[in-house]
User: Fold 3-oxoacyl-[acyl-carrier-protein] synthase II from Micromonospora phaseoli.
Amino acid sequence: MTGVVITGWSTVSPAGVGRAALAAAAATVPAVATVPAAATVPVGASAGGGWPVEPLPAAPVDVTALSDEPLPTTTGHALVDFDVRAHLGRKGTSFYDRATALAVVACGDALRDAAVQVDDGNRARLGVVLGTSLGSFRSTSDYTRETLVQDKPYLVNPVLFPNTVMNCAAGQAAIRHGLRGVNATVATGPLAFLDALRYGTNAIARGYVDAMLVGAVEEFSPHRAWTTSLTGQPVPTGEAAAVFLLARADQSGWVGPRREAEVLALATAYGPGGGPAADRALTGCVTRAVRRAGIDPAEITCVFTGETGPEDTDEFAPACAALGHVPARMRVSRLFGRCDAATGGLALATFLAAPPTDAAGRLALLTARSPDGGTAVAIVRGWPDAGPADR
Assistant:
C-alpha cells in the first residue's frame, strides 16, 4: 500500500465546475446494466456486483461557439459557457489558453475542497503534477501557423509562446496558487492521469513533498475534434480537468476535514506492438496491483476503463482475466466524451462521487491503455462517508 490518501478534489467538465456538478450529472443520466459478453474469465468465475450500473451516453451539446474554424460536427462534450475570468478575475488570465484555464481553476477548487490554505509555511512542501497528451494542441498549432503566415520574425506574438510548452498548465497553476514544491507534467496520452498519480505518490513517499495536486487536463479544440473524427472514434470529443489533493495518511496537517480515499496500488507495463502483448501486460499490471494492495480480487466490484466503443473490451477483458470474475464496468466517456489524458481523472472523480455505501470501503480498479502497448492500472479504496458533497 502507498499510504497516500486523497483529501479533496474537483473537476471542470461538461457537467460544470466542482464535485457537486459532476455528481449531479452522473446521477441524472439514465443507466443500463451491461456486462460485455466479450469479457471472458476463467471457468467457474462469476460476475460481481455492488456498483451502480453503467450510464447511457449523455447527449452532446452545440460547440460551434468555441471555434471560428470549421468543425467536423457541430456537437461535442464541452463546457461551452466556461469563463476563466468568472473564477479567477481578469488579472493574469489574459493569455491563458483553454487547457491552462481549465487546469488552474480545477487546482484552486481542489485546494478549497481539501480546506488547504497555502502560505509561506507550507507552499514549499506542496507540488503539482498534471497529465496531458501534448499540452494545448490548439496553442501549438496556432503558434506554428503564425510563424509561417506572418512576416518573419516580427509579427509573431511572443506572449503566446509559453502556451505551446507542454508544462504550461502545471507551471501556471503553481504560479497562480503559490506552489513551490515539485512541479511536473506527464505527457503520455491515455495513460497520463494514472502515470501522474504514480508520479505524485512517489514524490510524497520519497519525501520530496508533503502533498501533491495530481490531475490531468484536455481542452476542446477543432484540432482534437478533427483528430477524433478522422480516426473514426465512436465517441465525440470532450474536455475536462480533474485534480486531486494527495497527502500521506500520517500527515495530520494535510489530510483536511476528511479523507476521501486511499490509493492502494499502482502498476505500469508495456506490451510491444499492442495486441496480445498489451493484453498480457495489462493482466500482469492488475495481478501486481492486487498483490501490492493486499486485497482479495473479489472485493473489486467495478472497473473504470478508458474504452469508448460498445464492443471494445481491450481493457476490461484482460482485467477480468486477472481478477477471476466479471465486475461491473464503467466507461466515463459515455458521460463526458473522449477526454484522452483526462479520462482517468474523470473515472476517479466519478468513483468518489458515487453515493456512499454501508460497506467498510469500496474498491475500484482504474485501467488505461495506449495504442503503442502502454498499460497502467490503479486500485483505490473509497470510504463510506466520501460520497457527493455540496462543496
In short: The two ends are 29 Å apart (CA to CA). The first helix runs from residue 19 to 28.
